[in-house]
Amino acid sequence: MQMGELAADEHVKYILSVEKRKDSLESVVSEHLRMNGVYWGLTTLDILGKLDAVDSNEVIQWIMKCQHESGGFAGNIGHDPHILYTLSAVQTLALFDKLDVLDADAVSNCIFLFVICFYAPNSHASLETLSLSFFKSDIAGLQNEDGSFSGDMWGEVDTRFSYIGISCLALLHRLHKINVEKAVDYIVSCKNVDGGFGCTPGGESHAGQIFCCVGALAITGSLHHVDKDLLGWWLCERQVKSGGLNGRPEKLPDVCYSWWVLSSLIMIDRVHWINKEKLIKFILSCQDTENGGISDRPDDAVDVFHTYFGVAGLSLLEYGGLKAIDPAYALPVDVVNRVFLGKK
Ligand SMILES: COc1ccc(S(=O)(=O)N2Cc3cc(C#N)ccc3N(Cc3cncn3C)C[C@H]2Cc2ccccc2)cc1
Ligand SMILES: [Zn+2]
């Protein structure tokens, strides 16, 4: 296998082996993250054209066992539901064209439960209590005053939850349940003078938060709020000598920023401001061409997360033989078309 090409077959074998391995440290580390790991692994397989290598019914049955009575999904069977795992579950079901197994209202209702944590973050109200109070309240009235979303996992408002909530509701055709204008206003309130976005108003610009804010603005048709030249400049400055992208000035490059930075550049039509060939070479240099998998940097340990964001980054860079991926939904374009256009 040449260093200069994608070891696609090895990466497929690696993903399938992680799915099957139960006792390794990695699967223990990712036990509570398993719902995310399933989304990262299966989307990688789909981009490589090998989603049929897994038993879809087995995966779907496992996903539904992770659904909580509140409607949200947990990271694994018996764990607590969180908005992050709910998005991964919805995205994975979309891969298999199985969103119809969901009660979309129950799932989208649960997303608002994380909104009310912001009202009483120290209430220690269990999700069950919140869900009871929720069903007595008007859904639209539950969104935070400032339009923001909050997450039980972090207990505070964060633009990550704006993206997770908006993308999940959009995939469920339930965006009309929230005050989109207020949600957009909150995201715009997190825009910095450097054109970037942070976790909260005044928070430092970071590539991960920029992806979440630009993605949420793209989904809601609100990209006119972005100063594309100013943000494009901050983003293209993330490319370092090696061709890799970092998340903030002076930081080391990392393959997962090939997604956070690149998808943002594509959404604001400034991707031509970076050297695509050098970035492709950087991602390919982070592969384990022997055993499969991609790491954050050359010669580091591979993992499912960086394998996904490396392959997804190559897809955004139009590397040959890969399915196109949607930069805002982080799902293959044919999957997004099927969800929104009903196209088979
Ligand atoms: C190995 O130490 C870790 C550290 C943190 C985490 S985590 O909090 O669950 N998480 C997901 C994640 C999964 C894997 C894998 N397999 C590896 C890393 C990684 N990071 C850490 C990371 C990636 N690039 C640099 N850094 C430091 C991101 C983080 C946050 C995140 C969650 C969901 C979606 C996007 C981002 C997991 C493992
Ligand atoms: Zn990383």
From TrEMBL:
What remark does the entry make about the cofactor? Binds 1 zinc ion per subunit.
The protein's matches in Pfam families, at most eight in alphabetical order, are given as:
Prenyltrans
GO terms assigned for molecular function: metal ion binding; Rab geranylgeranyltransferase activity
Cofactor(s) of this protein: Zn(2+)
* CDD domains, per database record: GGTase-II
This protein's source sits in the domain of life called Eukaryota
Domain Prenyltransferase alpha-alpha toroid per the UniProt entry, residue ranges? 6-330
Single Gene Ontology BP annotation: root development
Q: What class of enzyme is it?
A: transferase
> Is Repeat among this UniProt entry's keywords?
yes
Q: What is its EC number?
A: 2.5.1.60
One cellular component term from this protein's GO annotations in UniProt: Rab-protein geranylgeranyltransferase complex
Instruction: Please write the reaction equations for the catalytic activity of this protein.
Output: geranylgeranyl diphosphate + L-cysteinyl-[protein] = S-geranylgeranyl-L-cysteinyl-[protein] + diphosphate
Task of the protein: Required for male fertility and root tip growth. Catalyzes the transfer of a geranylgeranyl moiety from geranylgeranyl diphosphate to both cysteines of proteins with the C-terminal sequence -XXCC, -XCXC and -CCXX.
Family statement = Belongs to the protein prenyltransferase subunit beta family.
How does the annotation summarize its subunit structure? Answer: Heterotrimer composed of the alpha subunit RGTA, the beta subunit RGTB and REP; within this trimer, RGTA and RGTB form the catalytic component, while REP mediates peptide substrate binding.
Q: What is this protein called?
A: Geranylgeranyl transferase type-2 subunit beta
Origin species, per record, is Turnera subulata
Per the UniProt record, the lineage of the source organism begins with: Eukaryota, Viridiplantae, Streptophyta, Embryophyta, Tracheophyta
